[in-house]
Amino acid sequence: MNGGGLRWRLLRMGRAASRAAEAGRIRYFALFAATTVSVLAVCGFLLAASSFDGRAERSQARWPQAAAPGSATLLWRATLASVDDRQYDVVYVEPLVSDAPLPPGLSRWPKPGEAVLSPALKAVGPEVRAEYGQTVGTIAPEGLESPSEYFAYVRPTAERLDPDAMTRASGFGVSWTPSLGEHMYNFGSKEFYWAFLALVGLPAGLFVVIAARVGAAARDRRTAILTALGASGTARAWFTVGEACLPIALGAATALVAVAPVLLTDVSLPVVDFVLYVPDARAALPVLMGAALGVPLAVLAAVVLLQPRSRPGTSTRPVAAKRRREWMLWLFPVALFGTVRGTDLAPYDLRLPVLAVGSVITLALLPGVAGAVVSAAGPVLARCGAARGRVGMLVAGRRLAVGARPVARLVAAVVVAVGLAAQGQIAISLFTDMSDRVHAVEEHLGTSVLRVSTTLSTDTADVASFERDLGAGVRALAVTKDSRSGRTDLVASCPVWRDLGVECPDAGPVELRTRHAGLARAVELERSVGARLYARTGNVTETVRRGDEAALVVLAADGRQLALSRVHRAANAHVAMATTVQVFAMAGTFGGSGEGIAAQRWLELLSVAGVLVIVVVAGIGSVAQFVRAGRELGPVSVLSGNGRVYYAVSVWSLLAPTAFAVCAAVAVTWYVTTPLMADSADRLSALSAVGAAGLACAAVMAWWGARTASAAGRVWRPRND
Fold it and tell me: Over 191-238, what HEC string results?
């Protein structure tokens, strides 16, 4: 038979063997699912890279070009705002000539007092649309980093225009990425890549390895038979390709179908409130096609390479595998201690990559170490079972003593799942610690006392009109801070102080004491951080106009909660061109929770995706082990006359190793995450929850294994093999 005919025959033989082999259907689904997940993971990474590039290009296109003296055509000023714990940019623009170039995304210049908002910001609600004046349109997609970006262009009124605080520009477009736009308040590219590789890439890679070795015992015996019959390594490879090519091809096709929608329309991602822009996805089409071809070939190569090698000159008699991998036992402590100490010694910019890489390596080595420890305990368990007459303990000990690799495959998915979930929860708690403190203060104080601040000119601030616009009973106090003494004064007239339950400080500043509920809580919060508020009598308008930085405290005499959007709108109209409004006690932490919440949402999404993959991996690997255990224990159940032997064996060979691996993963994760600046209580809470979930998963796996093995054992019949 010529070469082509032999290869075709080997492919057909491999295909036929895949249907009849032990756990053949399970392996078929495993290869199909692993290929699908791997292609989706690589495509997701490529789409993210293309999205980052596209957002950077659009951000560059809308940044102003600095104008030479006398050549300016427009004025430009970017400020920061926040709504619903989400930060965004507001850009104030003013044309200087009739043919001034338009900012990207605008079809015409807005008139004084008008604003143009992004569709996402406009959809937040009418209160946001009214904060910057009259909304006259929406920004086109080419002027936004993504369709989900919050962004606004505002043209100030003539009374509030502050030319000295604005940049003089001649047009738009730069060659560097500016500090403006959605990318500033979201996961950065480096952080996203590391998180994606650790939380999604590692589970996908593990899935491929587990899928390639599903039903390994039967295939290893078949490979040994082929070798004994004289099959070369190339022939065995073609046989394996015939066995695996169809599920891998179907998995790749399924992944392409799942990716196709992002090439046709904008796709909104769950949890993170982010929309993937279709032009960015289409820009990645060449590399996506390369991934659709390359990843299945890589999976197929992994399946071929992970088959046992032929050892010429050795016996073909089946032998037990090595009980442990010595190199893994030596490498694990090096990776464990190197991760923690290496993070301390690495430069600041490299600490996160060092920690991420070290954690991945440590978790990847841990299943092998757990398998070696459990395998070493197998003979002890078998002796205890024999001494006590426990059939299940005896059989489980014998099975565990055969080798570490089956145990490592069994616990690998659970170990990685526990490690990734725990590190994800700890990272989330680290990112959101500041957010929790901000929300705690906001809930305590509410919006009864607000601070209005700006760094722009307030020479024309009209505090009286500002108060009237806020409604009856609302008062505005000036805030001054002495840079030398650090003392903070609140300035108001005597009638205002009396309305707020404060004795008029005629003789000079006195420490503030008041019966006003909201202001009293603000005083209490300031005192808790070592600051003191003083009351002083004076003219609010003159104080604001004289100050280098305008600051006002707004509150109602009856202590009611105020609407931030209304205060913001009135401040923009009467105090300065651009203002910020926030809870008074949180001055200096404006928007502090926004980036943490965005990071939390991305980590939650990636963690859920990774853990779902791991759950599927654990299920597939466990089912394959259970089918094999049922066939092996069939004779034992017949000879012992006791069907409960399956449950006893399952407890000792499935539950005990998995529970040990979960505890080891929790302990290792605790040590590996010590370089993170997370609170010990948060780490303990996260690890306890994840560890409990892992133990519950181990119990379910043991019960499922016993049921599956029992079902397989009931149909066992003696064969002449």
Answer: HHHHHHHHHHHHHHHHHHHHHHCCCHHHHHHHHHHHHHCCCCHHHHHH
Percentage with pLDDT > 90 across the chain: 25
- DSSP state for residue 42 in the 8-state scheme: H
Say whether pLDDT at 687 is over 60: yes
> Can you say whether the dihedral through the CA atoms of 443, 448, 449, 455 is positive or negative?
positive
DSSP 144-175: SSSTT--EEEE---TTT--GGGSEEEEEE--S
Sheet containing strand 550-556, edge to edge, reads 510-511, 533-537, 488-492, 474-481, 550-556, 449-454, 580-583
CA-CA-CA-CA dihedral for 573, 168, 545, 576, to nearest 10: 10
Q: What is the mean pLDDT of the chain?
A: 80
Q: Which helix (H) or strand (E) holds 142?
A: none
Dmax (CA) for the chain in angstroms is 112
CA distance 690 to 323: 30
SS3 438: helix
pLDDT at 478: 92
pLDDT of residue 318: 44
Alpha carbon distances (Å) from 262 to 45, 56, 210, 275: 14, 19, 30, 10
Pair of tokens at residue 525: 């919060």
Look at the block and give the residue holding tokens 């394959």: 624
Is the model's pLDDT at 315 over the cut of 60? no
- For CA atoms 95, 99, 101, 103, the dihedral sign is positive
pLDDT score of 689 more than 80: no
Burial of residue 231 (CB within 10 Å: 0-12, 13-18, 19+) is middle
0.85 cut: is pTM over it? Answer: no
- The pLDDT, as a whole number, for residue 103 is 95
Cα 716 to chain centroid distance, Å, stands at 47
